[in-house]
Each structure stands twice: as C-alpha cells, then as structure tokens.
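A reminder from the course coordinator: this example appears on the midterm review sheet, so study it carefully.

Given structure:
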C-alpha cells in the first residue's frame, strides 16, 4: 500500500485545524471536536510516517491541556454581575494558548519535507486444518 506525502501531511495538520476551529467557535464546535479528537488521535498517532505521530501528539497535548484547564479554571469564576467578563477573559486566554502554537505547527508541517511511503499490506491470520 502506498501512502502519499500529501496524505501524510494532511493527517498531520488535521488535528491542529480542528483545535483552531474548536477554540474560535467554542459553543457549537468544542463538544463535537472533543469527541472527534479522540478518534483523530487514535487513528493517526501510530501512522506509518513517524512525523505524523509526532505532530499529532504535540497538538493533542496542547488541546487537551487547554480544554482541561478551561474547565478547571471556569469552576473558580465568581458568580457576580461581571461573570461574562471572566468567561470572555478565560476564552481569550485559551485562544492565545492554543491558536498561536497551532498556527506555528501548521506552518512547520507545511514546510517539512514529506515523502511517499510504501507499506506492506497486513497479513491476515489463516488457520490450516492440520493446525486446528
């Protein structure tokens, strides 16, 4: 099976684009991407191209750290008339922490050298009648 360089590059920056969308549009997209991110991570972390796994792990660590920190810090926001201001400040902090490194990673992925990879098809298990 042949994995093209373009396919490997796309797999590497897919998580970053999802993280950016989740932080810029938090209400409709954050819960959906949080679930989809687990699927993306498990599918691409052990990619035959090692650079895909490296970039995937970096972006996943950044996203889960930011999402978890927002949940924990949001618990300590005081209930007052300026609650919305606190939530906006927390969202702005998440945007800065997640957006800038994700854009930097996308730039690095785009300018990294990618090559096509030939992999062997996985062998299927067969049981002979004599072995059983």
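Designed residues:
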């Amino acid at each position: 099976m042949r994995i093209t360089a373009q396919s490997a590059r796309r797999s590497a920056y897919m998580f970053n684009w999802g993280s950016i969308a989740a932080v810029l549009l938090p209400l409709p997209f954050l819960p959906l991407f949080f679930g989809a991110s687990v699927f993306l991570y498990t599918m691409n972390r052990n990619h035959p191209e090692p650079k895909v796994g490296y970039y995937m792990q970096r972006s996943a660590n950044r996203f889960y750290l930011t999402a978890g920190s927002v949940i924990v810090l949001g618990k300590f926001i005081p209930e007052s008339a300026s609650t919305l201001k606190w939530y906006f400040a927390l969202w702005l902090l998440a945007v800065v922490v997640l957006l800038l490194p994700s854009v930097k990673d996308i730039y690095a992925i785009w300018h990294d050298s990618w090559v096509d990879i030939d992999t062997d098809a996985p062998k299927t298990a067969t049981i002979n009648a004599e072995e059983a």
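The two ends are 31 Å apart (CA to CA). The chain is about 70% helix and 5% strand.
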